[in-house]
Amino acid sequence: MERSFGRAADALRPVTFEQGIAPHAAGSVLVSFGNTKVVCAATIDEAVPRWMQVQRVPGGWLTAEYSMLPYATLDRKQRDISRGKLDGRTTEIQRLIGRALRAVVDLEKLGPRTLWVDCDVLQADGGTRTAAITGACVAVDLACRKLMAEGKIKETALKERMAAVSVGVVGGEVLLDLDYLEDKDATVDLNLVMTQGGEFVEVQGSGEEATFGEEALFEMLRAGRAGIESLLALQERALTVSASQPRP
Fold first, then answer.
1. Which CATH class is domain 4-244?
2. Sheet holding 61-68: strands in order across?
3. Which residues contact 155 (CB under 8 A, 6 or more apart)?
């Protein structure tokens, strides 16, 4: 089957990281997975949640919020605030982003402060949650570097970077990094989050009115692992360029 951007079954869409997209944030990036574009911004609050104060929990906290802007899709999506509550999908995704980031952030090294990570989808063409996680990790890395530069922490609170990618079975073939048209036709859908060290952070897989066996699962995991290795290399390249640029 012909894939977007003329890519092979095991290829990512073109991935880019445009840093400094939100100047008032401690770290920000516009991440693009093909036509899926997400702004990820990390901001610092010099306080911790009340429950941490009451329970005398040491260190800091990290939390994430996710939203899809009304014009991100072909048909306008109503804002959650206009309905008075988050929809189930939004709640699930922002919890996933927060869990994934807390797995690679040392909250004690962060100190008594809260790191807020906002992920706003500007354009959706499949894989918004995986793009958000991959971009959010870069934003957190940049925020930790800013905290170090300001002398607020002695060493980075980011233990290691991570990335996420989607994999699915479409027309009996395992495909990496699904766009919307592929995702809606997938009989199996899997989202994979992994660290630089090759450890799993989260595996979300399900059959869409279908079942799948171990062989298909292992093939998807192999494709996903290779894709994440490529994403980690792209993150590294983007951050290396950032570190080499003079500060304003």
1. alpha beta
2. 15-19, 27-33, 36-45, 114-123, 61-68
3. 109, 148
Cα(143)–Cα(188) distance, integer angstroms: 36
Q: Is the pTM of this model over 0.85?
A: yes
Short-list 176, 191, 140, CA closest to 27: 140
State how far the Cα of 198 lies from the Cα of 201, in Å rounded to an integer: 9
What are residue 46's phi and psi, to 5 degrees?
-80, 50
Tokens of 186: 């997938």
Q: What angle do CA 132, 136, 141 make, to 5 degrees?
A: 160
Phi/psi for 58 (5° steps) reads -75, 165
Could you read off the pLDDT of 21-68 as tens digits, one per residue?
999 999 999 999 999 999 999 999 999 999 999 999 999 999 999 998
Between strands 188-195 and 162-170, the pairing is antiparallel
**pLDDT tens, residue by residue, 176-213:** 999 999 999 999 999 999 999 999 999 999 998 889 99
Q: Residue 142, by phi and psi: left (phi above 0), alpha (psi -120 to 50) or beta?
A: alpha
